[in-house]
Amino acid sequence: MHRSELPRLDLLRTFEAAARHASFTRAADELALTQSAVSRQVQLLEEGLGVTLFTRRHRAIELTEAGRVMQRAVDDVMERLRDATARIRNAQRREPLSITCTAGFASLWLIPRLARFTAAHPAIDVRVSATHEMMDLERSGIDVAVRFIPVAQGQGKPLFEETLLPVCAPSLLRDRSRPLKVPADLENHTLLAVEAYVDESLMTDWAPWLVAMGLPELRMRNALRFSQYTDALAAAVAGQGVVIGRLPLLAPKIAAGELAAPFKAGAKSQRGYFVEVSRHAATVPEVQDLVAWLREEAARTGAEARQGTAA
Question: Could you tell me the CATH superfamily of domain 97-160+272-308?
Answer without folding.
Answer: Periplasmic binding protein-like II (3.40.190.10)
